[in-house]
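Hey all, sorry for the wall of text incoming. These are the two entities for the joint prediction.
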Amino acid sequence: MIAVDAQRLLGRIRELGAVGRDSEGRLIRLAASDTDRLGRDLFVGWLRQAGLDVAIDRVGNIFGIWQSPDNAGQAPLLIGSHIDTVIDAGIYDGCYGVLAGLEVIETLKASGFSPPRPVAIAAFTNEEGVRYTPDMMGSLVHAGGIGFETVLAAVGTDGSVLGQELARIGYAGDKEPGFLKPHAYLELHIEQGPVLEREGVPIGAVENLQGISWQRITIDGVANHAGTTPMSMRSDAGHAAARVITFLHDRAKASNTPTVATVGTIRFEPNAINVIPSQAVFTVDLRHPDEQRLQAEEAALAACLEQLAVAEGVTISVERLARFEPVIFDIRIVELIEAAAKNRGLGVKRMTSGAGHDAQMMARIAPAAMIFVPSAGGISHNPREHTEDADLVAGANILLDVVTDLAK
Amino acid sequence: MIAVDAQRLLGRIRELGAVGRDSEGRLIRLAASDTDRLGRDLFVGWLRQAGLDVAIDRVGNIFGIWQSPDNAGQAPLLIGSHIDTVIDAGIYDGCYGVLAGLEVIETLKASGFSPPRPVAIAAFTNEEGVRYTPDMMGSLVHAGGIGFETVLAAVGTDGSVLGQELARIGYAGDKEPGFLKPHAYLELHIEQGPVLEREGVPIGAVENLQGISWQRITIDGVANHAGTTPMSMRSDAGHAAARVITFLHDRAKASNTPTVATVGTIRFEPNAINVIPSQAVFTVDLRHPDEQRLQAEEAALAACLEQLAVAEGVTISVERLARFEPVIFDIRIVELIEAAAKNRGLGVKRMTSGAGHDAQMMARIAPAAMIFVPSAGGISHNPREHTEDADLVAGANILLDVVTDLAK
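and here's what came out:
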C-alpha cells in the first residue's frame, strides 16, 4: 500500500498553524483578513509547487486541480475543507482536511497513478462565519444555495464588506462559483467531539450530519423591586428562562438519543441585583440527525413555552435564527471509508457529525461523506485543540485510499 | 385635629419632581451631581423660608432644625429620608418623606405648638447608591456605621470622587457627621410594593425591615461544542445556574413565608450560541425579616450549590456582596402609628419593609419606625411610580400626629 508523506503533511499543518498569530500568540485568520491572505498565499504556493492548476472563484474559494489532457473532460473528484479560523483557534480545524487533500494528490501523482478523472482540492471561504455570516459560506455559494452577489455584500462584525476585502487581499477570483461540478466530495476533519477518543477508535466514517435549529427566545415579564414584591405577585422573566433551560436539558438527557440542546447565550434586563428581570433573551441550539425527531424537539420546546407563558404570567416570542435539515451522506462512500480502515487494520465507527461542515453544502450537489479523526478531550475552537500525529497520518491514508477508489 | 397644608405639600412634591430632568424628560438626580445640587438648593430654600436652622455635615446630609432657646438642650425628634434619585426615577421615592417632614414642622409651627424638644428634618446623602456605593450612605455615616473619610473617597461609576463632587456643588458642610443625636427617628415613605394597594389599606405601620443577603455566584464548567458534545459528557455552567434559579424560586414560593429570592443579573462565558457555557456568573438577593430564617435560606442555597457541583461536574464559588441583618423597629412608635391611623378613621396594617431605607441605619442609634403609603401597582424606581394625592396627604397627617406625640 502506498502512504502519504507523514513528515510533509505534519510539517505543513504546523507551518500553516504558525501563520496569523497576534502579539499574544493567538491564532486568528478570520475570513478575507490580512492574516487569511497570508494563509492563502502559503497554501496557493504549495498548490503551484505540486504542479496543480490553481483556480479562484468570485467568492475567494481556492481550487487546486490535478488534471491531464486525457481526463480533463470528466467530472472531478473533489476534496475540501477550509483554512479560515475562529479567534484564538487551534491549528487542525479545517486546515487538516485541506492539507491532507493536497498531500493525497501529491502522493498519488508521485506514485504514477493516472486517474480516469481529475482530482481537486478546495479551500472554501469563510467556513467559520466569525467575521461574516452565514458560516459555510463558500461551499454554500458553490452548491448554489445563495447568490454570490449576496455574500459579497455581506457586512462583517468590523463593518467591512466581504467583496471589498477579498479584492483588497487579492482573492476576488474570476471563476464563476460552482464552475467545478464534482463527481463526488470528500472531507477529512477532526471530530471536534469526544466520541472517537473515548471509544479508542481512530477513524470515524461519518454517515450523517445533525440537523440544526437555532432560535432566539425573548421572555417579557415585569420589572419590580426584589425586596417588596411577594413571590406570588412576580412575573420574573429570568426565572422563566431558567425553567426553559432546565426543561431542555432534562428532556435531551432523558431522551437517550443523539439529541443535544444548548443554551449558550443569555441576557437579563435591566440586569440589576435588586430588580426582578423584566426581560430575558437567550438562544437555543437544538440538534438531531433525524429531521422528524428534530421537529419533535422544536414542538416540545414550543409547548413548554406556551405553558410557561400562562404559568408565569410572561409573554414569550421566538425568532428563528437558523435551520438546517439533517444531511444523510452517501452510503457507498461511507462503506468505502469503513473498508479502507479495515484494510489498514484501523478501528472504524460510523458516526454523526454534530458540527456543521462544508460537506453538508456539497452533499446538495454530489455524493459526499466525511472522515473523522479523534480530538483530544473533544476540544476544538481553542488553542488546546489536539490530534495525535499518528491519527492525523492514519486519517490522511484513509483519505488516500478512498480517493483512489473514487477516482477510478 | 390640625392637618397639613395639602396643596403646599403636593405642590412641592411636583416642583421638586420637575428638577433634574434630562432632554428626554427623565428624572435623574444622582447623589452629588449638578441636578442633585438643584434639588438640594430648592429644598434648602424651603427650609430657610420655613424659618428652620439649616445645618450641613461633611457628607452633605442636610438638616432643617426647628428649635427654641427653651428646648435647644434636648435631643431632637428627627424625621428623615432622601432627595437623591435613581436614573429615570419617579417623584415620590424619598422626596415624599422629606417634604412631608418639612410640611409637618411648618404645620406644627403655624399651629402655635411649642414642643419640649427640637424637631428636625433630614435629607440624607446618596440613599440610592446608584452613583456611589454603599447605598443609604448618609444615614450610615450619621449612625456611625462607616467613617466619613471613607465615603468621601468613594469613586463613582463615572470615575468621580464623592468628596470632590460635594465640594464642587457646595454641599461639603462643616458639621461633624452624627452631631445630631435623635430622641427618636421617623420616616414616611411610599411602600414601593403592592401590598397596601392590594389590600385596600392606606397606612402601613412598618414594624420591621427585611434582612438582606446579596451573593455573587460563579459556576465554572467546561466550554465545548454544542453539536458534538453528548449531553452525558457536559459540564454546562449555564444549565447549573438555571438549576440554582429554579431551586431558589421554588423554595421561596413553597415556603409560604415572607421569603423573597431574586436572581437579577446573569452572564455566560463565552456567551456564544453554539458553545456550552464555560462560566455563569449571577447574583442572588435573599430577604427575610427574621435573621434565623434568613440564615436558613442561605444555608439551603449553600447545600444546593454543594450538591450541584457534584451532580453537574462544575466548580462553584460564592462571594458575599452585602449582608444586613433584619431591623426590628420600635414597637411603641409602631403602636403610635396604628393609634393615629385609627384616630383618623384610616385603615392600618402592620407590615415589613422589603426595601432598604435610611430608617434601618437610624434604628442603630435611636428608637425608629416607618410609615408607608400605597404605591400604585407596587411600582417604584420608574417614572410610573404613583401614589394617590389623598394617600399622600393621609400619610403626612399620620406623620404629623406621631411627631406631635413623640415631641411631647
